[in-house]
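Loading example: each entry is read as three labelled lines plus one structure line.
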Amino acid sequence: MSITSLQRTARTSGPTRPLVLHPDRTFPVDPGQRAIARSIYEQVRNLPIISMHGHVDAQVFADNPPFADPAQLLIVPDHYVCRMLYSQGVLPEGMGIPRVDGGPTEADSRTIWRRFCAAWPLFRGTPSRYWLEEEFSTVFGVTEQPSADNADALYDQIGAVLADSSFRPQQLLDRFNIELISTTDAAGSDLSSHAALNAQGLGGRVLPTFRPDAVVYLDRADWRDGIDALGQASGIDVSGYHGYLDALRERRQAFVRMGALATDHGHYYADTAPLPETAAAELYQRRIAGGTVTEAEVHAFAAHMLFQMAQMSVEDGLVMQIHPGVYRDHHSGVFGAHGQDKGFDIPFGVEFTRALQPMLDAFGADPRFRCVLFTIDETVYSRELAPLAGAYSSVRIGAPWWFIDSPEGMRRFFETATETAGFANMSGFVDDTRAYCSIPARHDLYRRISSGYLSRLVAEHRLAEDEAIETAIDLAYRLPKLSYQRTAG
Amino acid sequence: MSITSLQRTARTSGPTRPLVLHPDRTFPVDPGQRAIARSIYEQVRNLPIISMHGHVDAQVFADNPPFADPAQLLIVPDHYVCRMLYSQGVLPEGMGIPRVDGGPTEADSRTIWRRFCAAWPLFRGTPSRYWLEEEFSTVFGVTEQPSADNADALYDQIGAVLADSSFRPQQLLDRFNIELISTTDAAGSDLSSHAALNAQGLGGRVLPTFRPDAVVYLDRADWRDGIDALGQASGIDVSGYHGYLDALRERRQAFVRMGALATDHGHYYADTAPLPETAAAELYQRRIAGGTVTEAEVHAFAAHMLFQMAQMSVEDGLVMQIHPGVYRDHHSGVFGAHGQDKGFDIPFGVEFTRALQPMLDAFGADPRFRCVLFTIDETVYSRELAPLAGAYSSVRIGAPWWFIDSPEGMRRFFETATETAGFANMSGFVDDTRAYCSIPARHDLYRRISSGYLSRLVAEHRLAEDEAIETAIDLAYRLPKLSYQRTAG
Amino acid sequence: MSITSLQRTARTSGPTRPLVLHPDRTFPVDPGQRAIARSIYEQVRNLPIISMHGHVDAQVFADNPPFADPAQLLIVPDHYVCRMLYSQGVLPEGMGIPRVDGGPTEADSRTIWRRFCAAWPLFRGTPSRYWLEEEFSTVFGVTEQPSADNADALYDQIGAVLADSSFRPQQLLDRFNIELISTTDAAGSDLSSHAALNAQGLGGRVLPTFRPDAVVYLDRADWRDGIDALGQASGIDVSGYHGYLDALRERRQAFVRMGALATDHGHYYADTAPLPETAAAELYQRRIAGGTVTEAEVHAFAAHMLFQMAQMSVEDGLVMQIHPGVYRDHHSGVFGAHGQDKGFDIPFGVEFTRALQPMLDAFGADPRFRCVLFTIDETVYSRELAPLAGAYSSVRIGAPWWFIDSPEGMRRFFETATETAGFANMSGFVDDTRAYCSIPARHDLYRRISSGYLSRLVAEHRLAEDEAIETAIDLAYRLPKLSYQRTAG
């Protein structure tokens, strides 16, 4: 595996630099405004974390195993770290990413860690750098920035912390001050990990979220497996369309019983136009029978199912999270060799206004309905999402996330989303991460940036400081709790 | 009518806060830059208001009635205020919005006012809050921010001002320093209110604007009524396409005689491709005869008519205002119950470059033609509108308006529109409001934000301060007067 | 030719203002941050210029003639200057733009110059003003801003400098500290100017870039001429599709032999979907035979050829520059009278994620492939280009250019492109200009703005100052050299 390009473009030598977290990091530059930001932030920095959209595996919480080593904890599973190395010529195999075919991949965690450390200059100005610095410093006590020179020493230092018995997933819930955290679970999940968490008294703290994408997109390679799992988990015959809907309804209830507050829908488009029932049933039947379904039919069925999911949310009160506009697995080579979620999901332009109209027309003003809209296409904040959320009682604007979960991205979010929608129509922050140790850093950054934005409103005499503090508390804690309350059922 | 959600999410209690307008509000934070902004602003703050695009009813000026009460003046007709309450679960009926079917709606203005005051925290960080604060303070002498506690007191205080005989629409023209204000009038309007204004010596100060949308969109429910009015007002037989064009031409002349300087076109798309005349005539004829017209034909005819309107502007010199990209009446329930303009107009992405090409190719370099382009899709400022306005002699960029008429929105406007187009190709500010009392606050905010942007150019040594002052005067006063001069006819 | 509008809207009188370049121009306003920006900038201001994408004619370097006069050097060929005057009613003829039909146009350079000077206020807040100020001051020693009053004096002052024998194209390479500059050359160019430059020892300093657009777009009026030139230059029979591909391959090799490092592709769309070979061959054959080709076929063939060009880049290592999304020659009247590149190229919204997928799927992870992606649709930076460049090892983000090559535009570029992609995936700056004397000013502005952005990262404690300096050096010098290295062949 070649790291030629990396050697050519990254600066891998140079002095080892100290790692010191400045208390004013990411605050506005003007001294007067910074002082205001600091005093707002002081009121929110220690609030408990509400993490209602994330990807830490439920089993990790249930089994509570020790973490393996620095590379396996911090690097290999974090595709935002790995993709930056790919972008400079390192292959996934070089970062120890498992191959679907079981083929060879870097097995030595220390080697992977060294590659990461040597590539540290690549992360300048990125949110990954920001989060990692904070994790290194506050969680692991690291005092130097990674470099080719200190890679081994850091590996050992972090490894020693990981070996400590207090450093386990469940114990970190307390250490990280996490009041509520949600996993993401397939529609056909048997929720056994959540049952185990319930038995351990963690049921109200670690919640499942219902994600049916795999059984909604008829062209998914794992569709049939998902349908089988759905049938099995629900105990309902899913060989026909109505059984399929019943099974989904049953699983949603099962999720509700296990504490779920929300569903999650990662769709290609935001379309919500329902099909005639017979057309939907015919499509489902055809796919079950192994027949051919066109791309247009795949999208039409997905839109139809989004409408059905909204209808079910009106019944059971699960808050509906929608996030369209991503081309998944853009590089077929990486997907074929390593599977999904490997850093090659690429956003594209997205449309909400017309796409959501059927759903909002039907349920948008229904007090039993709530939807949280996420986007990576920032242009829709001022143009579509804020106008929608500022009128429809059901609509909340989701957090700036994924590629926008960054200092500059979050600033643009506040500037473009809040004037028209008002702060009360924000859903607060979600970290959306599988990098467990980064959760406190991510929430802290959001609190810093929101304090920074609010400090400007104060400095510009558009808001009193006590109102800004209330608003910061709303954004950090109150709104995510309110937005993800079940509204019915 | 439920206000459950409101109670859950808005902070309705807490101390009553003072309402004090800081003289430096919305100015840049840096002290040095703020001083420059202040000195630029001092030169424009008292300039007369040129308000060439608005929605105050002509009859209000002509009849000059006293205003009813605080809720009926400031809350009920302002759909930007009401929509924020809808977004938190208050129904339109709860805000006294009349029902189309005459059904029950809140009749007690004081109750409506209390609901608004209790919801005041929802407006934090919004332009509505900014304007209302300024109106409350400068127009009505209010010294406390609205709250559940002081709602009745404020109602009485504002009511007392409204009862004063000097507080009438015509008297406010002077008090607000309005040199020129334009109403918006249907193509088939008989302009009787404007005739009355003429008779009262206000003809040169309150002008009509010609808005033919209702007779251009073949699918409008009120199309036939509009056509009938057009025929009646013009005295021309509009049963055929050529009569229709002649009647439009005649009404434009009538508007010109009544002082009109501009037309206004709120189209779904910006398309301007003309149809073959026979095709346009056939479509019109078919619609007149009650035949079916497809959605595609509706848009094709609208595009065709935009081209015709441009052609007529070349003849009569009326400045053509175009603003596409809004999904009107997005929620059919609210539209069915309460009619249009109720806060459910939602923008979508829009395209100008290709859409306007036919029109600009034909008339764009003609000195007798002028068009002002508005958008709520901000992405087009740097990408399309500035490049167009920076080349075509006929094109001016309209004000940041509607949802973008806000501190952050206007800042982005200056940053994205002026570098490529130059300030001379801006048309200056329009308030676009039906909230009469908010007009001074809106123009003042624009003057503050433009001074703020210019102060940065000065502080960054990109512009001398005296040039910045000239530019601020241009934006506030000179450019709207120049941009809305008739160019021919 | 009318300059009526200009007289109406531009401020043409007033005091003659001094022209003084402030050393801190365009730096951030906050004094603490400005000091950081200044110290970063000090480390990059004198670095040599790498100018890998530009439009100065190769023959100008080869023949090294004296420049004609101020108007012919600075105004007439700069369509960004001229378009601003068109936008206020001056006709192209009034600025001396030659007519295709040889018809009359302003022949007196002094008259053209006076028009420009009188229009100087139009340029407030534009990048043209910024560059011109810097050229006037540093290159020509001008100490007053242009005005109607001093037009003649400036004309004479600048003319005197131009008359100096040291003021020739080749001599300016040294004076401007240009280490490397690239011209843009048609696929069928015989590269005789570059051969002459080679003979003069300038071969490694002035490089050709291979631009095949004219032979790739089947609807170009000059397509047949381009094909003939391609056949002639390559000595290959291009009457069939395979000969056409062979000829392109041969010319690329000829460009490589003459020092070329890159190709340049200005496409309408970014589509890269390859056609079946027989379909492509049939289309080519049909066009050669004079048959009709539909608009859809034109675009399909262009997409196909972009894929072929990528394939050839894998073979010969030429870096592939792609810039879609511009409606060329938007006004047919100006195009018909004066030809292309006259300021009427207008951008539109563009899509990269899906469009580039075929190409990136095939070559995106190939170490022999590199592509640099340019855009004028800024929305794609955070949404598409940064995610692509932050994953694919072949992708670099091109400079903010054309209409975005401005203080505000470049700031937005850094804010939206670098967090997700990392600085190492930027290709550094290109000036993209035919205004030779503006090159130092353009590169200097980029260095100032990048220093300004980096100073904020430092002031916000997101980056150490020494890292910021390294990054500024990378952006100004190291990355353009690395990004434009040939990767294979």
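DSSP finds 21 helices and eleven strands in chain A.
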